[in-house]
Please model this.
Amino acid sequence: MSVDVYWRIAMEGDAPALRLGDITRGGFGPYRPGSLGPGLRGGEPDGYGPLDYMAEVARATERAGFVGGLMPSFPETDDPWAAAAALAAETRAYRFMVAFQPGFLHPVQAARMSASLQAASGGRLVYNIISGGGGPQQLWWGDKVDHDDRYARTSEFLDVLKGAWNGPFDHEGRFYRVEGAGLPADLRDQPFPEVFFSGSSPAAIAAAGRHADYYLSWLEPFEALAEKFDLVRRHSDTPPKFAVRVDVLARETEEEAWEEIREGWARVGERDRTPESSGSVGWQRGRAFTAGAGDAFADLEVQPNVWGGFNRLRPGPLFGLVGDYHQVAERLNELIALGVDAFILAGVPHLEEARRVGRHVLPLLKGNTS
Amino acid sequence: MTRFHVVVPTRPPRRAELPEFLTDVRPGGREPEHRPAARGAELGGLDGVFVPFDPGGHDPLILAPELLRASRYLQVTAEFHPAIATPVYAAKVSASLQRYAAGRLAWQMTVDLPAAVARAHGDFLEGDARYARADQFLTIARGVWNDSPFSYEEEYFQVLDGGLPGSRVPRPFPRVYLSGTSPRALELSARHADVHVLEAGEDPALVPEGVEAAVRLPFGLGAPGAEGRLVEEIARRRDQGVAEFVLVPSAPVADVYAFAQRVLPLVGKESESVG
Model:
């Protein structure tokens, strides 16, 4: 069975290195020395923008051996629909994994946009459906539906989206009502996008059983991850495939890799090493795995090469892999053996690290031999 | 300065049937001709393109980003109705497009859809309530765009401590195009529109003060003498105070080039002799 390896694309700007952290690429924040996309040329903005850098990442990604990229969506990021539609014509094979929360778009509109993007890209749209999170962030988006209710809404959203996709479709539910919903005639034969479904709460796992092609989790210590997959299997009539989002910091030697972490750790002050909490259940789970760790970065290596401090060095999940090319590949092979069918890998800077991981790590992966 | 936009197609054209003995390497998949039409507008020096909301066509929120990426100068105006998304999300998507395309995105909001079309898109709101919702939509969108933190709680939409992140690339709020001649429509325009778009038969005197007048003008340049008549029509509308033209070509690509090469130089000359 084949494994799909995606590479994240930065939608919030990108830094020149994990150890440095400054967001210089992609047009958020002020100009700094070395800023690009846009940069300064002779003191004036050079006319390039965030999408020019993202296009480079997407092209590097597809050439490096990845099937496509996860385009995340948070308040501080750019929007994945905008980026995917703009970049469709500049890539050939790259699959656009568009992250979105049901509820922000009407499901019929989501169906129209999806089918239009399928037509424009030759069927390269993939969904990353997010329902959870919450707290102040949810109100920032203008969404007042409660955490657990959002999974009910996600289920109904996907029912209406699929209904419209195969329309004509009538529906009267708790969140949505449509009459005669359907797609334009020439969009009716587009393939329905694969669904990557995220969420660590019980409500998420129940909903994943109904709708997910892939159940997507952040990386966790492997034993916990295996238990989570089992839980999802038990809640599904037809178990989904499994995907993991993994940061990788792979270098020629293990020492080089840890040196990058050490320098990053020295960069962030004590305050930043204790990041603010989040309403996300996945995030809280991650915190629990590293509770009680001391102040040294080495304390966060919870099992060989599995390091739980990435969130201190850049926004996002806690866990990732740190090691030499063979070690990182070996850990990924172990995850494949645990039942992982797809990866979303990431590294900073996303451009150069896509090229590095494609050249040095992907060739060392082995299929599931069990 | 008078500005000229053309409406681009959103449905694929009928494909020519090639005789079987000809080697056919045309790419599979059928796309609307929005790209060649927009390239014509870009190369020909027009000011913009309109991507209409067409229930039977591809979606403007996918087509518009493609056209922004494929052009340097065009204003790309995407048409949508306020039930497609929350205003915060519409603002979020649009802010990215402004960052990507040097602020060339514009919005044409349609408030008054035919009832069956609205219901097929999940919208059961009727009458004046649709204008109240559009007003709230535009208020929130502009609010989160310009202010942080921004809070607003109304019947159809709400946001608490919102506000888009800052950007080192300029991201102006999209130019807003509205239309309609009912008192509610004109009131909405007075509050929110940069430009009010009239149909050919509607009176430019209706357009609220402080809002530019635009007119939708179907045209075709296939027939002899057509360009003379179009030039006259444009001049007449300019005299009535119309500042922007939303041109609806009969032939989506050919008429764009014909307009750029044969009409634009004439109306350009006229404006020079007038001004």
Summary: The radius of gyration of chain A is 20 Å. Chain A touches chain B through 58 residues (CB under 8 Å).
